């Protein structure tokens, strides 16, 4: 990675803001899909930060090569954001359950992270949520590419 890839650019800022906003909105769409007794805690805030980070480090570093690349960079950024969101939320739930002594050892806890990730992923199989994530990723990628060309 060249040293210039670590420099802030307008495209990286646009991608971070766009994916952060998409992470927040997707969190709001996801909440009603979960069981009513679910305690969300800082769910939206965590997903906002994940969106900012994935926008900066995943989408932002792939900008400046044309609109087709911006399109795919947006999809890649949202894919990374969904992966990390599922992992972190599953890991957080596993830690909560571990504090209640529900696991006999660390391997059982790590296995539970994967099981919880699959369970949460099944809740995400919802048409409006998937449509929001796909459309949002394309818009963020193309707009960030436009910003990277306009202000580079």
Q: Write the element-wise H/E pattern from the N-terminal end onward.
A: HHHHH
Q: What share of the residues does DSSP label as strand, in percent?
A: under 5%
pLDDT under 50 segments (min length 5)?
A: none
Structural class determined from secondary elements: mainly alpha
General form: elongated
CA-CA gap between termini: 19 Å
Oligomer: single chain
- How many domains? 1
Question: What's the number of extended β-strand segments?
Answer: 0
Largest sheet: none
Transmembrane segments: 13-34, 46-65, 71-88, 123-143
Protein name: Tellurium resistance protein
Keywords: Membrane, Transmembrane, Transmembrane helix
